């Protein structure tokens, strides 16, 4: 058996980007959750995926919507990341935001966004694999991503020749 602390420590040496998954339900309630396990899956068809914990209350609120928006956070959005990582009844309280073409919450100044329809959800260990079919997407030309590495948040350091 692999020691969970060692597993987390070793895998923490691989940096990940930070995204906020958002959705609005049929009653107009907005939901969001921070994810560090987002990935591109396929170009044709265009599919992306992420891995929420099976016990996630936030995912339980988003799942029935059947669609979601991936908001890629910039390095200047750590406070926004912490807001959506915290347990709160309304993570959107007093937060200005736009909407995707499908009407999902689009966080202001996200460096990229991906509007998805939930394609499938599969149990994988203690997490779920959520696959989204990409329906629309966009990005800003400026900004660097917020990264998570060895248990802390970081900015992208640009390499110079």
Describe the structure.
The chain starts with a helix and ends in a 6-residue tail after the last strand. A seven-stranded antiparallel sheet has the order 3-2-6-9-10-5-4. A hairpin with a 2-residue loop joins strand 11 (146-149) and strand 12 (152-155). The chain has one domain: Electron Transport, Fmn-binding Protein, Chain A (Pnp Oxidase, Chain A, Roll), CATH 2.30.110. The mean pLDDT is 95. By secondary structure, the chain is mainly beta. 14% of the residues lie in helices and 42% in strands.
> What's the β-strand tally?
12
What is the gyration radius calculated from CA atoms?
16 Å
Q: Total helix count?
A: 3
Largest sheet: 7 strands, antiparallel
For this structure, the quaternary state is single chain
CATH topology: Pnp Oxidase, Chain A
Domain tally: 1
Shape: globular
N/C terminus separation: 44 Å
Low-confidence stretches: none
**CATH-level-4 superfamily name:** Electron Transport, Fmn-binding Protein, Chain A
Q: What is the correct CATH architecture?
A: Roll
Structure classification: mainly beta
Helical content (DSSP H or I, runs of 4+) = 10-25%
What is the overall pLDDT average? 95
N-to-C series of helices and strands: HEEEEEHEHEEEEEE
